[in-house]
């Protein structure tokens, strides 16, 4: 029963596949046939259009030659000179009859009709006709088509000179049904000529049948001409030619090729395909049954072997001596058994080891740590992190970074004591498990390792020194389970980055600090949308005038659970986690909204705000700022963006371009925290800034005898020589303000003037300050 069912499935699959192949073949043949027919039809249409144009040119040359002969006829010129109308009419008729011209006319130089062999052409028509003809000749066209009355003419015009022009003659063929029939005989294409005239019915000349012509006429009147159209049960491929167009008229030609007639030549192909398909189905059904009978028995045998392999028995022998594909399958199955056994061993190893260094991974490290805790052995963990690994990776490339990690792993492994173990946790973090070791011993070991790792690694031709930091946690003092110990060692490693010796024991309570950081990082992403952010404004005093016209916008965060969070705490977290750009975007828009609100109350203040390093290298920032300026109708001059030199140095080319675009929009630019980091006069000159802000660390304790006095005074003089204004932040004492005024500093900012205030409080403070200043002036 199984064999018969298997045979049926094989037969069904083969028949189904054959049906799919036949169907695909049929579709492919039909598609190819249709494409070939259409391609051939297009080619015939292109050739037919050339034949049609050549036929018009031949007729046009006949007309041109005949009209030139007429214009040069001496007797005709004498008749014109003597105004002999009979002779003129006779000459026109004779010359027209020589080439079977349908119309020959003589016109005055002003276009008035004098004599015509075609009664339907009146003086008004001739006048219009002459104007159109002269326009064509000025355009360089010598042969042209025009509708006249109810007929279409191919026309040529020339002047009669004796020796100056005394008249004009025009000669033309009528383009009629006979002309269309002649073209059909030459090209085997149907032709339809359509001429439209202003104020008159269209002229139709076509070799199509009357029903087809009427259907085509209806389609042209309702829409544009389609290349493929169905006309009276036949499908046609068409080509549209614009033959002539002028004021009040147009002539176009439509060439048609019947696709239905062309496809009839392939009608017998469908019958042949069906016969071939039937024969193939019968043959495949018989062959499928025979094939299934030969295949089913060895397949059952192989299936039994595969079942035992699936149960984990990889030592089963396969007794099948065949030289065909099933024999190859048996050999492959035998090889698969061996391969699976080897890969399972390798997978078990890889699941617990790092692929790059071959060291145990986090999973195995936790297992070993758990075993030590279960056994109650004192154990210390050294969590090692590489602070400068990203810089190493950038300078050496990924391959060089991998080599550095491998060398570091070998160096650490060589320093292990018996019973200790080393694991690689993630890219740049390692874990040393020190058996039978307490915190004090772990510190001593970490110090030795620190000295060992100060020696440079040799990567190719370069020497690299890794900035390694150690966090230490011990069992049982710092935790009683593997996860807690590993987490606390990681916390200590992160704290070690702030220590001079790059080493830190776990401190109790740091879990709460770590949890607070994680909570802030998580909630910071939704703070702008949740309405938890607000701005405080700190006034900036114009020292020379004693007026307050500026303020700095300072960001504050009112956390729903933690209360007011210091900017010094959440700003670094935003910079490290990528949330800083969202905060900057909120600050910029909120400042513009506040400025617009103050403008409604006739309060104009220039506000400065800080731009992060990530924003400095965002080329879209100037465009977004410009959109917000237009949205809130705020003058760009009311904004000052404060940037740091270190932020510019991250990507100077892109940052300078962003600053130039911001400056071009009218926004003021200021260098913040000047003097605290890398300061370069060359870089400062390249930056399109108008203001320099001396860091508060130089201003807070400023007096004439302090070391900062020389720095501050020289900075002010240097800035003024560069054409920059100077802002001193952190002014808290009168003596500091007096010195700044004496040194001609431009602006002061600090608690001496005012602490940062909420928007409403700042507005009230500003009003009171100005009132007090005005009273002092008038007193």
From TrEMBL:
Name the domain of life. Answer: Bacteria
Q: Where is the EAL domain?
A: 517-770
Q: Please give the biological process terms from Gene Ontology that the record holds.
A: signal transduction
Could you confirm whether the keyword tRNA processing appears in this record?
no
Q: What is this protein called?
A: cyclic-guanylate-specific phosphodiesterase
PANTHER family in UniProt = CYCLIC DI-GMP PHOSPHODIESTERASE PDEF (PTHR33121), OXYGEN SENSOR PROTEIN DOSP (PTHR33121:SF71)
List the GO terms this entry assigns under cellular component, sorted alphabetically: membrane
Ranges for domain HAMP: 293-345
